[in-house]
UniProtKB/TrEMBL annotation:
Location in the cell: Cell membrane
Entries under InterPro entries matching the protein: MFS, MFS_dom, MFS_Efflux_Transporters, MFS_trans_sf
Membrane topology of the entry: Multi-pass membrane protein
SUPFAM superfamilies in alphabetical order: MFS general substrate transporter
Keyword Membrane part of the UniProt annotation: yes
Species of the source: Isoptericola cucumis
Keyword annotations: Cell membrane, Membrane, Transmembrane, Transmembrane helix
Domain Major facilitator superfamily (MFS) profile: residue ranges: 30-408
The keyword Membrane belongs to this UniProt entry's keyword annotation: yes
Spans through the membrane: 31-48, 68-88, 100-123, 129-151, 158-182, 229-252, 264-288, 295-316, 322-343, 355-377, 383-404
Record protein name field: MFS transporter
């Protein structure tokens, strides 16, 4: 049989490109050490992301603005994270991904330093824009890097370690920031965050191998990924699930305040239970997702929806509140693991583009969930807003589960 020279060239190019995209083989010990530094990255960045809610009052007082204005710094961060997640690969198509991750961490350092010395709310907002860019880029790269460090059947476990940083930041990082603020002032909190992120950047530079970009990335690749069977539906579904969560989570304090006899201590205990549930859920679901993705892809969104509904109804049945926040925290603690493994299954050859779409979906959900939730709470009350959010989250779970069937059908052809 005569070989077509064009086919030979194409095959060779594809093989070479794929090989170039892989990280140098690592021993299991080095691979998990590298993932541990990425855990540190997610912990330091997410802690910085959610520090403003914990120090709203002193920041507002010091800068002479309202607490609502300071609260917008979280939305500003999410907006630039969305844009960076979509565009970073296109802007730096040839840059080694380890180098890019370290530069993003250093960008977060600069952001925290600028916030720490900010003389006005304008400087603080600009600094938060920079943090959003670091966050969006970090999350769009993290799945790509983790998938190169471990075997394909261990991606879920790898991301479990990386994503644990997010959960630990929620459970411990942000409360610790509040304590530091009370003892030494809010500016010291951001100096501390900057110092931690410097350590993170150095650790990643030392522990991560060189990781070449995925061949064929860019805006056109992002468009092709979105047009792949089931991907657009899946991303919209992710926005629905995560948006439903953030409708509830953004307004969880007023919801828990409706419990009979509720006080600050009760709310603190319930939020702590949510955080503990998140920590357990991240590790439990992360350990199972590689083998049980189809089940978890539906079960986790349903658990989020049912729990949100239960918290919304807890004013009428207070006993529901305690188990509901634990289940809610556990489901949300594991949802990122589930979604990240999902994208590697539906787009096995376009993980970098798919990861950017997933991060963009998450950030869109944060923006829409908090904004739409606020309108809903004001218009129809906390209870009804929670019930609608629950329905949206469950519907999103059903839709995203259906995309696996489409992906399987495509692979069979």
């Amino acid at each position: 049989m005569t070989t077509n020279p064009t086919e030979t060239t194409s095959t060779t190019s594809t093989t070479t490109g794929a090989a170039a995209g892989r990280a140098a083989p690592l021993s299991p010990r080095r691979a998990w050490l590298a993932l541990a530094t990425m855990f540190l990255g997610s912990f330091s960045l997410v802690t910085a992301e959610f520090l403003p809610p914990g120090v709203l009052t002193p920041v507002a007082h010091d800068l002479g603005v309202t607490e609502g204005v300071v609260g917008l710094s979280v939305s500003v961060t999410a907006l630039t994270a969305l844009l960076t997640a979509l565009g970073l690969s296109s802007m730096f198509p040839r840059t080694d991904r380890r180098t890019l991750l370290v530069v993003l961490a250093l960008g977060a350092v600069v952001s925290n330093v600028l916030v720490a010395v900010a003389p006005s709310i304008g400087v603080l907002m600009v600094a938060r824009l920079l943090l959003g860019a670091a966050l969006g880029g970090y999350w769009s790269m993290s799945l790509v890097i983790a998938a190169r460090l471990v075997a394909a059947d261990r991606v879920g476990r790898a991301m479990m370690i990386v994503n644990a940083g997010t959960t630990v930041a929620t459970v411990a990082g942000v409360p610790l920031g509040v304590l530091i603020s009370a003892a030494a002032g809010w500016r010291v909190v951001f100096w501390s965050a900057a110092a931690l992120t410097v350590v993170t950047a150095v650790a990643m530079r030392l522990a991560l191998p060189l990781i070449a970009p995925t061949p064929g990335i860019g805006w056109s690749a992002m468009g092709r990924a979105l047009r792949s069977p089931g991907v657009a539906v899946g991303v919209v579904s992710i926005v629905a699930v995560i948006g439903g969560h953030f409708v509830g989570f953004t307004y969880v304090r007023p919801a828990l305040s409706l419990l009979p006899g509720s006080d600050v201590g009760t709310i603190a205990v319930l939020l702590a239970l949510f955080g503990v549930g998140g920590l357990v859920g991240n590790f439990a679901i992360g350990a199972l997702v590689d083998r049980h993705l189809p089940v978890l892809l539906l079960a986790v969104p349903v658990a989020i929806g049912v729990s949100v509904a239960a918290v919304g109804l807890a004013a009428f049945a207070p006993v529901l509140a305690y188990p509901a926040v634990v289940v809610w925290g556990a489901a949300f603690g594991g949802v990122l693991n589930v979604v990240q493994v999902w994208i590697t299954r539906v787009l096995p050859d376009q993980v970098e583009a798919g990861s950017g779409l997933v991060v963009a979906g998450f950030q869109t959900a944060i923006i829409l969930g908090s904004a739409v939730g606020g309108v809903g709470v004001d218009a129809v009350g906390v209870g009804w807003a929670y019930l609608v959010a629950a329905v949206v989250a469950v519907a999103g779970g059903i839709l995203v589960r259906s995309t696996l069937t489409r992906a399987s059908a495509r692979a069979a052809r």
